[in-house]
Amino acid sequence: MKTEKAASQHALAQLTLVRFREFTREPEALFWVFLFPILLAAGLGIAFRNRPADVIRIVTPSAELARALRSEKRLDVQQLPAAQAEAQLRAGKAALEAVPATSGVTYRYDETNPDGRTARTLADAAIQRAAGRADPVPVNDSLVREPGSRYIDFLIPGLLGMNLMGSAIWGMGFAIVDARRKKLIKRLIATPMPRRYYLMSFVFSRLVLLVVEVLAVLGFGALAFGVPVRGSVLVLAGVCVLGSLSFSALGLLIASRVRTIEAASGLMNAVMMPMWVLSGVFFSSQRFPDAVQPIIKALPLTAVIDALRANMLQGAGVAQVAPQVGVLGVWMVVCFTLALKLFRWK
Amino acid sequence: MSEVVGKAALCVRNLRKTFSDVVAVDGLDLEVRAGECFGLLGPNGAGKTTTIEICEGLTDADSGDVEVLGLTWRTEAEELRQRLGIQLQETQLSDKLTVEETLRLFRSFFHQGPDVPEVIARVQLEEKAKSRVGGLSGGQKQRLALACALVGDPDFLFLDEPTTGLDPQARRQLWDLIDRFRASGRTILLTTHYMDEAERLCDRVAIMDHGKVIAEGTPRELIASIGGEHSLEFSAGDGAGGLDPAALGRIEGIRDVHLEQGSVRMMVTELHRAVPAVLDELRRQQVPLTELRTHSATLEDVFVALTGRRLRED
Q1: How far is B311 from chain A (nearest CA, A)?
Q2: Which domains does chain B have, with CATH numbers?
Q3: Residue A346: its chain B contacts at CB < 8 A?
């Protein structure tokens, strides 16, 4: 006898509902998925906010030089006795010391320190101008400081990518390994539950939570810092969904055979840690040597973050993010296939 | 289920299962008739759980045949899953879900079965319907586990140690629920290492030891098979050293005399004849009596008589 059931009684709907309930009744999970990235963005956004140009501290024992140098607004000039000035330079508290010499001035500074080199240029220009040098070419400064080129603009897509990875891998990994440890998976397969529904319920609930998660991070970036979304919202949504699916597949693969929470968290950290460092969350992945760039580009987190940055900051369309989409697609298909083959149900 | 009444609901032939180097099930045969409550009784490690999990289709046997409700796992697993109710020995259901949510989930897997509130009422958890599973007592959790097994209106119920670890009141409550299911004419296979549970619930039992069935029958038949209805036990204190147990064994109606640390244990058929005869014999041997006990023979005595060991070594 087969009776018709309402949609809400459907096994897949019930399994997905259960996923939601388990997630929303876990305050720690809510914190890590929703609040943590926002706190991180706020903290880093404030720490690295663009200051009106850096003021570099320099020292000089000479009152005459100090007067000349103070005409340069980007220098913080301290006139100190020679011994103290020397000590400040050695301690790194001053980037440069200007010392009167028998003919002219000696600049003492560390030329490997960017601040030292900048101070040298600024100090010299100030002293030469004070001595009567006239610039042969007239110049004008026009300052560019628009949203999209600040650190926070770089950071928000990075954090979003990191969050997509973390919530998918942790959400998948812990829930599955915990259910296996409690023999809940065994209990479920003792019922007529279709096994694919069990796995699909994780993916479905992830995709719904994804909407909230992405809106939280992007909304915060837009409201608090004016971080732009220049590209098509559809492409952005597509990248987020594909990224989340790839990471879910990776999480499923990690959880496919592990029996203990300890082993699972070790494995998850081992997978995610290199990507946190290499994939350009906090700084550009271009800083790593050219030789490893192909490997870095093949990582799913790099692909997600690169695609998000291209879309949000440069307004890239589908064609421009195609390579990243390809990388993510491969990860998704390979990990899902392997995970389904390896999954330990009993 | 009417078409299988009187026929075998479960038929196990020459079942074998080895885990690395441990033989868990060693050529086991079993037949459970439709409508009966059948108990697999044995000590821990006898192979009860492995046997029941093979019957439930959760573990693959190395060899042998299993037929449940006339179907096999190889060819009709889908249909079997719909018709079986299963309770595993140690499942922890999700602590964060309520009783109602848990049952709604399990209900969604089955084509037919009672409504969720009805199942909750059946296991007497109405007051806990909206409570989280994590806050339930051991007995309530076990009743919820039973509800999860009943939610598909099964023809065959598998219970693996349903009352282990419960207090006496919770056990009796669970027994009543199992009794009620049995009264509806459906079949039950349960494992237990409590002899009183098997005697209370089961129409027939199989006693298992080292992966084999060593005795099978109704509890009454098994008790009768060891040659006595009663167990008689006495202590002789310091005088036990001079006791000749063989002389006791020669008394008519007394069997299986065991001497164990100054305490003597035997099976007797008729208590009113055996007790005076034993007392006479002890007087003749001049052995002083410090304690005398009798109790009706139980399945525990059957197990001791068959293996020389107790069911639970504790």
Answers
A1: 27
A2: 2-95+156-223 (3.40.50.300), 227-296 (3.30.70.980)
A3: 58-59
